[in-house]
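Hey, I'm writing a tutorial for new members on how sequence and structure tokens pair up, and I'd like a real worked example in the thread rather than a made-up one. If someone can provide the structure for the chain below, I'll link this post from the tutorial.
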Amino acid sequence: MLKKVSIVILSLFIIFFAAAIAIPLFFKKEIDAKIKSAINKSVNAKVDFKDLDLSLISSFPNLGIKINNLTIVGIDSFAKDTLANVKQLQLNVNLLSVIKGETYQIKSVNLNEPNIFAYVLKSGKSNWDIMKSNSTSTSGDTAKTAFKIALQKYTIEKGKIIYDDASLGFFMNLENLNHTGKGDFTQDLFTLQTQSDIEKLTVKYGGIPYLNKVKLDAELPIDIDLKHMKFAFAENKIKLNELVLSAIGYLAMPNDQDIVMDLKFDAKQSELKNFLSLIPAIYAANFKDLEATGKFAMNGVAKGTYNDKSLPAFNVNLSIENGKVKYPSLPSAINNIQVKSQITNPDGVIDHTVVNVPAFHLEFGQVPVDGRLLLKNPTTDPYVDMALKGKLDLKQLTAIFPMKDMTLSGILDADVQAAGRKSSIDKGQYEAFKASGQILANNFNYAGKNVPMPVSVSTAKMVFSPKNITLSNLSAKVGKSDFAANGSVNNYLSYFFKKNQALQGNFNMSSNLIDVNELMGPKSTTEVSGKKTDSKLSVFEVPGNIDFNLAAKAGRVLYDTYDITNAHGTLLVKNKTVTFKDMALNMLDGTVKMNGSYATVDPKKPKVDVDFGIEKMDIQKAFSAFNTVKLLAPVAKYTKGIFSTNLKFNSDLDEHMMPVYSSINAEGLTNIIQAVLDGFEPLNKLASSLSSDKFKKLELNNLITKFKIKDGRLNVAPFDIKKDGIVMNVQGSNGLDQTMDYNLGLNLPRAMLGAKANETANAMIAKLNGKVGTNVSMSETIKVNAVLGGTFLKPTINLKYGAGDTKTAVKDVVNNAIADKRAELETKAQAKIDTVKAKATEKVKDAIADKLNSLFKKKN
């Protein structure tokens, strides 16, 4: 009997298991179609998912629908924004509703690793407003009937949610969110039990971070009235790091635009240490060991309507009494902390917000720091009244806060005040805005393991007035580099109060050494073919919010491989551009003068536009230092000597601050003062073609030529080279690909042709003399035209009539010389004929004149 029962139970189990496997397969196609139909008819967005799985076993008694790799991308203004990217969305649906083919009842929803980006434009348009309007749907729409929300539970696992509202300046980021909600959403009135934990919560408003990567744990039961869309908060606990808060009241959404609220909150634990846990730097540094005493209080209310045009009225109070903060391992503490502050808004109009800190006081060891702050009318005409006074021994901070692998010392002495309205600054009525005081720094030193290089300021003084901040006596070192400066910032109040204002200043700076390579940080190494190589320089982006005039002088500047000395001139920094004015410096044994600019208006495409004047620079050093010379003038590799040039140069730069060679435009005039060209393969080829070693080595003196770089080619204007009675005229171009296209016109001594060639030439001249009746002799020089082609390493050369072997080349040279002589003789013959004709014409004229004279005499 027992055996039969076991067989029946086993059979039922097999049937049930088979059904659990078969039912999802049977309905998969139908459910897939209904989901896609519901999506297409419900939303204006691009929705996609990788695949869909059905399961009955893990979700019994419901049918589990798993949608994998779900993405939702917006359209129109949000066409490039991904609203949601969900690794897996699981819907547990009532199985009977599926079998009956009626409306599917969704019992629970689970989001696994969702990434959600909710964005609101300044216009108020949001990227999640993707639901189609009801007017586009009909009564029989599948979108309305396929699915029905009958939720009893929903969960979010390992979520990341960003809410960025540009219309309000509000930003919220939830990292690693885990959230569970349980309640019967089929009822109009029910209680939703929620539990949340967020690893990192960031909240910013107006660019100010009020919470920065704070850990949140919350148990928040909510009484929900779905009919009136009202949510009331019962007894609850919200923990931010170590600070425990509670909130009571309600939120209601009577329509699509408004959120009505009446909330009160306060800190349940009134210990200072709990509040300090919200400060990231303190919370991260041995917070458990921190000794913090004193009373902390925070409470607030928010009551009214939140929408696009208004905020609720609110009031937030924060105070600290008799506070003290000390780490047990350190000898000193922050003592006597006293703070009272209040942020109020009586009616929800943001301009009526008042931030008031009537006084705060604390003591670093025994050194007091006092201040106050009042801010009113933040949006229309901000009014500020603030003061700060204190003398701080920075070394004392290392005795108060744990600073591992770091040294800090020096004295900061501050006494500043400011009071007035923004409108006074806008109108230039600086006398109506009171600003005064000074900040002094002495023997400031900062170094450590995480500091790229030590920083020290021996002296510095800043004096404040309504018009400017004056900097004097600045003497500083950053790593190996030293700086001395003075000057002023002229519109700091306008810069602070107005948008899109560039900070204006005038400074004088001098230095004995500026190591730019060190200041830009160590070069990272990259591995290519198993070998580590230093990466190149990266683009330096010029700030766009400053307008500085800087007169600079440096004894020595190290930049990349360049060792520059005696640099001086003026730098103008404005509109993301550095303009060089009357700059001069010494490098590569020469002097460089320049005017021009470096611009990063488009940081991905920097531009440089400079006029150079270079005097007496070493050619070999210039070739080694400048890649442009290597690519466009490789002849410099074989040239030893000195040159000067005037050059206008402009080019785009790549991400490594190197010229984009195809974009180079340059022109100038170069003077080879004294140089020797030896071992240059194109000249070796020319010497071989002319059977003369005289061209293998050329001495150049005071050689002047014009050039132009365009479309990646160096174009050289005609210039002459003279050597041992030879005159060679050179003109043409070469390119980045090392190709050449040069024309050489040479006047050669007749002796270079050899005896046989000269005999042939003399015979031809004699024959010509016989024909025209002249008696001329062969010229002492002959002309040769040659074309240099190929590349610098593999040149080709063709004489005027096409050079083949040496005998053909000599024959062509003789023919060329005879052709020139024929032209010379023909010119002389023609001149002789013209002379005879002229004499005959004069005789005819004289004869006619005599006849006319005799005729008139007879008449008389």
